[in-house]
Design a protein that fits this description.
The chain has helices at residues 2-5, 23-33, 57-63, 65-68, 74-85, 115-118, 125-137, 155-163, 205-220, and strands spanning 15-17, 97-101, 107-112, 146-151, 168-173, 198-201. By secondary structure, it is an alpha/beta fold. Strand 4, helix 8 and strand 5 form a beta-alpha-beta unit. The longest helix is centred in the C-terminal third of the chain and has 16 residues, at 205-220. Bound molecules: zinc ion. Zinc ion is lined by residues 124, 126, 153-154, 156-157.
Length: 221
């Protein structure tokens, strides 16, 4: 069961998903921001939206200055998230872990899924670290922060990440059943929303998937 939920890919290669906004949409957004209203932008038809382009980590490294920063070692941050995830089965929870990284590259909060433990449908790892970070900074706006999570966020968590105005989402395994950061929806990059998030997917994907597959295997016995 678990195996079907989790996407496979090319050996932990991270992909950066492009923002699908088009020129016409940007103009519409600008109009909305200026309070002009929801008038449809007239003029030539914008070009068709290109399909998803998957960039390899090496290519992204050339294009994204953040990759060159010693502060943004996403693999190391994913290892921290994996360490969190591995604690969840002790209380019967699906092993998903998350860390919230501040703009200086420091881990501000880390936690794992506690839905069963807390009997709380919102106690997903991502929600817990976003709340922890907001408490620590005293601000609900987490601009410049990065959410690192072992599994592609669900609609609730992807929505919360947009609401928190984070800069970047880094995730490991894709969740083909409920993923809302590419698989079913792409909420963090929906051009209709007022904030957009850079996505890096497939970070230590294999390690993240194995943890989940083992958990479901053991729990189906
Ligand atoms: Zn979630």
């Amino acid at each position: 069961m678990a195996g079907n939920r989790i996407g496979t890919s090319d050996e932990g290669q991270a992909h950066t998903l492009p923002n699908p906004r088009q020129p016409g949409q940007v103009r519409e957004e600008a109009a909305l921001n200026e309070g002009i209203g929801c008038r449809k932008v007239t003029g030539p038809e914008p070009p068709a939206v290109p399909g998803p382009k998957i960039r390899t980590r090496r290519r992204a490294a050339r294009q994204s200055p953040s990759y060159r920063s010693p502060m943004t070692n996403w693999k190391q941050k994913m290892e921290e998230a994996l360490a969190e995830a591995s604690q969840a089965p002790a209380h019967g929870d699906v092993p998903v872990g998350a860390v919230l990284v501040d703009p200086q590259g420091r881990t501000l909060a880390s936690d794992h899924n506690r839905r069963e433990e807390a009997q709380d449908p919102t106690a997903h790892a991502e929600m817990l670290v976003l709340s922890q970070a907001a408490r620590q900074t005293g601000r609900w706006r987490l601009e410049g922060h990065t959410l690192v999570v072992t599994l592609e966020p669900c609609p609730m968590c992807a929505g919360a990440a947009v609401a928190a105005r984070i800069k970047r989402l880094v995730y490991g395994a894709a969740d083909l059943k409920t993923g809302a950061a590419w698989s079913l929806y792409n909420l963090p990059q929906d051009p209709r929303l007022n904030h957009h998030i850079e996505i890096v997917s497939g970070m230590l994907e294999e390690e993240c998937s194995i943890l989940l597959v083992d958990f479901f295997k053991n729990n189906l016995r």
